[in-house]
Design goal:
Chain lengths: 643, 203, 113
């Protein structure tokens, strides 16, 4: 295990001191700590979103229920959707990526550690701002897609929608900054020999997602800014009575919204592509196909947005185009699914909890994919749209798919992140309970949807024929809550008393298993050298490398990223540069948040809000000054001219 | 071909990256890519509403409001600022502190002149009766050009910050890169105006 | 296309082999093209040529301007391929966005009329 020995070899401790206790977390620039901050805060938001879902299920458990008022019900489904997508799934994926990507490509940190800290703080503050709305007049109650003109001031008079705009705005800035960081890190910080064609597939998917993000989020940002102007500053972008266009909002929102679906699912496809080979004891089948089908999905994802809008009446030409393009996405998705199946085929399967989740991902995702194909057909879509069939579809994709994939990733990487193993027995209980209750919750929604039950209704009458399906869904959702409690218990006990995790508990193939669990703050004492797609397996089982490795000789391709693929550096014990801890990103985020509060109230309380904005800007400026100073001190050139 | 082939030997050693390009420069280019979609969305909105504006009873004709002479001056100012910016970068790389300061501050001055011109233009249009709420043209025009103006203002602040940071050693590799990436952003803002100039003012 | 190097610029070329004189030249071209654009706009207020032709010519001239800024002032020409990738791909998406929205809304003017 030369890589493991060399990379974990003795090294003089880096010159960076980590502050103890809370200060260490508030001022951290370490991608591993930031990853954990993402994971923990996203999981808290995820639980809150789950509680909102439970409240809705309780309300719908029996007909004519009065557990929630209609307005509170509207707030619940809006906050549930917004929370799960922007504050739950996305940051859970980002958290895993933040922790693992630098380790997997053999880097010491992300390319921009301070920007990374800024991203996590902006995400946390954006989520908190969204939740502040509950205490200042009511949460947004217009759905997570916020269709116009329902979002206009006369129909949504509370500032809930404003908090939605600013909260989404802050997490959006965080996402774009994070995506830029991932792009630069993955393209430019790889260890020698880690060519693009040797990167772990999780890294590939994170790279694709980062590109989708920087292309899709600006569109949402513009749309929400225009909505903010409509609400407060007298414009009329989405006001049909003044010539504005409600359909334009839908187009802009879904131009972002459909790529967003792939932002949620592609990273978990990457997780699956790591977990399945490890526990099948086989290399991934068709590496290049899995990687490039991810690119194809990401690209096609930008051409299908209007399949969310078939009911608008776009005309036969547009419907045909968007329907056909949506069908087309099934091709690269199917490629991936068959590659995963072929990876397991004749493998020596180890059914750990992570593996169970990965296998279950495939099954549940296929169900969601098939209902997705039915929805891609305009005539069928018009029947199903806005019914519970759609709710069933998206939960099979995003819960059966993304959440199960994330659990696979958490069970797989928890030992690496904490140095402790999760309890496999509890994990399997959780898995089976979750799989059963998930299907109990969401499968009946296909049926209630087909029987005409619309989405977003707060109650229904007893003679509609939906009673049984709804009761099943509600029971299922309560069982799901138990599964999450088991997981929470598992994490809380294992983190203190779980068995100590070795560096490589699963006999993994990728670089993160070459370092101790948890990894040292500098990740690798010596930058590893990579000669294949499975650097650790090739070292542990050299005879397999003879069998598998020959066809992987790097091919010089003519292409955009040709330069520097194979650049090698002389091996040298260079001093380890790690970024200093700093509060600057936290200060800048606080400033931006105060600025956001000011913007929300600028239309109604001009002077006070403007003062708040000024204060926010000043705090931001102070933060940026301290940021520039610390980045200058940390700069590798600092010593050269002595200032 | 790449950063590491730059002439300063200590830069090459410290700057090793997989693609042989500077991290921050790659980040700024990707950010510019993202901003391209930001402005594309604003411009798209303008175009979607242009024909609707014409059919409305409160129609306001862009050709009647927009002053081609003022706009040409503003466009020329921004194009000139791109020239001074690239000359500032060139001066910084050859370590010419005096010309670096001259060209960079000229860029800042031209940026401020552009902002001043836009404030004058907005003020003038406002008094002519074009506001955010007067018509779809007002709505789309002010939000589009206003966001561009905001970007110019941020660019001015960025350039000033870079100036005070690097003026003592404009040719150190880190500082030259500071100038280069601020310049990239500045040229991009100019590029957006090239698009707005033809799409909004001329067509 | 690269201009020859002036003395003091000679050691700063690296990836960007342009002299200050070359930048002045580019700026001159930009000024001429802008003048052509404005001239075309003003002259064609008499409707000498068809509107579609005017629009086409204006778009071509602006593309020349934009390309000059990107290629020479931003040094994208001759710079690393990855920069072209992260700029030109979103530019293609942006163009797609604009054109597809114009197509989608061409027969749809809301309820304005």
């Amino acid at each position: 295990m030369a890589i493991a020995e060399r990379t974990a070899g003795t090294v003089s401790p880096p010159s960076v001191s980590v502050r103890p206790g809370w200060a260490g977390w508030l001022s951290t620039t370490d991608h591993k700590r930031i990853g954990i901050m993402y994971l923990v805060s996203a999981f808290v938001f995820f639980l809150i979103g789950g509680i909102e879902a439970l409240l809705m299920r309780i309300q719908l458990g029996v007909p004519d229920n009065t557990f929630l008022t209609p307005d509170v019900y509207n707030q619940m489904f809006t906050m549930h959707g917004t929370t799960m997508i922007f504050l739950g799934l996305m940051p859970l994926n980002v958290g895993l990526g933040n922790y693992m990507v630098p380790l997997m490509i053999g880097a010491r940190d992300m390319a921009f550690p301070r920007l990374n800290a800024l991203s996590v703080w902006l995400f946390i503050f954006g989520g908190l701002m969204l939740y502040v709305s509950f205490f200042v007049g009511g949460a947004p109650n217009v759905g997570w897609f916020a269709y116009a003109p329902l979002t206009q001031k006369q129909f949504a008079p509370t500032s809930g929608v404003d908090y939605w705009i600013i909260g989404i705005g802050l997490t959006g800035v965080a996402s774009i900054a994070g995506a830029l960081n991932f792009i630069v890190t993955i393209l430019n910080m790889r260890a020698p020999g880690m060519t693009l064609n040797r990167m772990p597939l999780f890294v590939w998917m994170q790279l694709i997602v980062a590109f989708i993000l920087i292309f899709a989020f600006p569109v949402l940002t513009v749309a929400t800014i225009q909505l903010l102007f409509d609400r407060h500053f007298g414009t009329r972008f989405f006001l049909p009575n003044l010539g504005g266009d409600a359909v334009l909002w839908q187009h802009l929102f879904w131009f972002f919204g459909h790529p967003e679906v792939y932002i949620l699912i592609l990273p978990t496809m990457g997780i699956i592509s790591e977990v399945l080979p490890t526990f099948s004891r086989k290399p991934i089948f068709g590496y290049a196909f899995v990687a490039y089908s991810g690119v194809a999905i990401g690209f096609l994802g930008f051409l299908v947005w209007a399949h969310h809008m078939f009911a608008v009446g776009l005309g036969p030409l547009a419907n045909a185009f968007f329907g056909a393009a949506s069908f087309l996405i099934a091709v690269p998705t199917g490629v991936k699914i068959f590659n995963w199946l072929a990876t397991m085929w004749q493998g020596s399967l180890h059914l750990t909890t992570a593996m169970l989740y990965a296998i279950s991902f495939i099954g549940m995702f296929v169900i969601g994919g098939i209902s997705g194909i039915t929805l891609a057909s305009p005539p069928i879509n018009v029947q199903q749209t806005d019914s519970y069939y759609v709710v069933a579809h998206m939960h099979y994709v995003l819960f059966g798919g993304a959440i199960q994939g994330i659990f696979a990733g958490i069970f797989y990487w928890f030992p690496k992140m904490t140095g402790r193993m999760l309890d496999e027995r509890l994990g399997k209980w959780q898995f089976w309970l979750m799989l059963i209750s998930f299907n109990l919750t969401f499968f009946p929604m296909h049926l209630s949807g087909n029987e005409g039950m619309p989405r977003r209704i707060y109650t229904y009458e007893a003679d509609m024929g939906w009673n049984l399906w709804n009761l099943m869904s509600t029971i299922g959702s309560l069982l799901l809550a138990v599964a999450f409690l088991i997981f929470l218990w598992n994490v809380l006990t294992s983190i203190r008393r779980g068995p100590i995790a070795p560096a490589d508990p699963w006999d993994g193939a990728t670089l993160e298993w070459a370092v101790s669990s948890p990894p040292p703050v500098y990740n690798f004492a010596v930058t590893p050298r990579v000669r294949s797609r499975r650097p650790l397996w090739d070292e542990k089982y050299p005879h397999l490398h003879e069998v598998n490795g020959s066809h992987e000789a790097p091919v010089a391709r003519k292409g955009l990223l040709r330069d520097g693929f194979e650049r090698e550096t002389p091996e040298a014990m260079e001093p380890i540069h790690l970024p200093s801890p700093t509060y600057a990103p936290l200060i800048v985020s606080v400033g931006i948040m105060i600025l956001g509060f000011g913007i929300i109230y600028l239309g109604d309380f001009g002077l006070i809000a403007a003062s708040a904005m000024l204060v926010g800007l000043l705090i931001m400026a102070a933060g940026i000054l301290s940021w520039v100073r610390i980045s200058h001190v940390d700069s590798p050139h600092h010593a050269h001219h002595g200032i | 071909m790449s950063e590491s082939s730059m002439t300063r030997p200590h830069a090459a050693a410290a700057h090793h990256t997989s693609l042989g390009v500077d991290n921050r420069k790659l980040g700024v280019w990707a950010f510019i890519g993202s901003e391209t979609l930001f402005f594309a969305t604003l411009i798209t909105t303008y175009f979607v509403f242009a024909p609707v504006n014409r059919m409305r009873p409160d129609f306001q004709d862009p050709r009647k409001f927009l002053d081609i002479e003022l706009t040409t001056v503003l466009a020329s100012i921004l194009l000139a600022s791109s020239l001074t910016m690239v000359l500032a970068l060139s001066a910084s790389k050859r370590g010419d502190r005096r010309w670096f300061a001259t060209w960079l501050l000229a860029t800042v001055g031209l940026g401020l002149a552009f902002i001043g011109g836009q404030v004058y233009e907005f003020n003038h249009l406002y008094h002519e009766g074009l506001t955010l709420s007067s018509s779809l043209f007002g709505t789309t025009f002010f939000v589009l050009t206003g966001f561009h103006g905001t970007h110019v203002a941020i660019g001015v602040i960025w350039l000033l910050a870079v100036f005070f940071k690097v003026r003592a050693y404009p040719d150190s590799p880190e500082n030259a890169m500071d100038v280069e990436i601020a310049g990239l952003y500045w040229h991009f803002v100019d590029l957006v105006w090239v698009a707005i100039f033809v799409l909004v003012y001329l067509i | 296309m690269a201009g020859h190097h002036e003395d003091q610029g000679a050691h700063a070329h690296g990836e960007h082999g342009h002299s200050d004189r070359f930048y002045w030249l580019v700026a001159g071209v930009l000024a001429v093209v802008t003048a052509l654009e404005v001239g075309l706009f003003i002259v064609n207020e008499q409707h000498l040529i068809a509107k579609w032709l005017e629009v086409t010519l204006l778009l071509i001239l602006s593309t020349i301007k934009g390309a000059a800024v990107v290629m020479y002032f931003m040094h994208l020409k001759g710079d690393a391929g990855v920069f072209k990738f992260v700029f030109l791909v979103p530019l293609a998406f942006a163009t797609t966005l604009l054109l597809s929205f114009m197509a989608l809304f061409s027969e749809h003017v809301g309820i304005a009329g």
